[in-house]
């Protein structure tokens, strides 16, 4: 698993909200951190480095090693993700739309087999596609 966190529009004011940091920590720790390969921070604000340094004594080194910041214009970010992190063209196309804020939906479709990896409360929020067919279908948790 790789998480990409887009920091577009995220600044000092948002970074100083303690509830937000606590929510991120809870979200990370509740979603299989041992299976998480990397968290890629897309254009994090400079204050993030300061906050990360302050958190270092309290966070496991293996966890910190999973954090990678990628900075630059959208083309530069996409090039880095392709060349250094092996992102597929499909993932890059979706991220390009997300970074340019032109997504028809905020969440990409997932392969059908990913359904079993999600918390039951999240399943209704995703669209699943059968990898053997080209059609996308929305499934409910009924």
From TrEMBL:
Superkingdom, taxonomy of origin: Eukaryota
Domain CRAL-TRIO: 1-122
One Gene Ontology molecular-function label: phosphatidylinositol transfer activity
PANTHER family: GH16843P
Entry protein name: CRAL-TRIO domain-containing protein
Source organism of this protein record: Grammatophora oceanica
């Amino acid at each position: 698993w790789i998480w990409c966190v887009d920091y577009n529009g995220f600044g000092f004011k948002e970074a100083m909200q303690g509830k937000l940091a606590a929510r991120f920590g809870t979200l990370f720790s509740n979603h299989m951190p041992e299976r998480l390969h990397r968290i890629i921070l897309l254009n994090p604000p400079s204050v993030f480095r300061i906050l990360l340094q302050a958190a270092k004594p309290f966070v496991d080194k293996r966890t910190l090693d999973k954090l990678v910041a990628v900075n630059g214009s959208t083309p530069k970010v996409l090039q880095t993700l392709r060349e250094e992190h092996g992102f597929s063209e499909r993932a890059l196309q979706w991220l390009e739309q997300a970074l340019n804020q032109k997504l028809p939906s905020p969440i990409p479709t997932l392969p059908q087999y990913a359904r079993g990896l999600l918390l039951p409360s999240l399943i209704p929020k995703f669209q699943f596609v059968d990898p053997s067919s080209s059609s996308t279908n929305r499934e409910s948790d009924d």
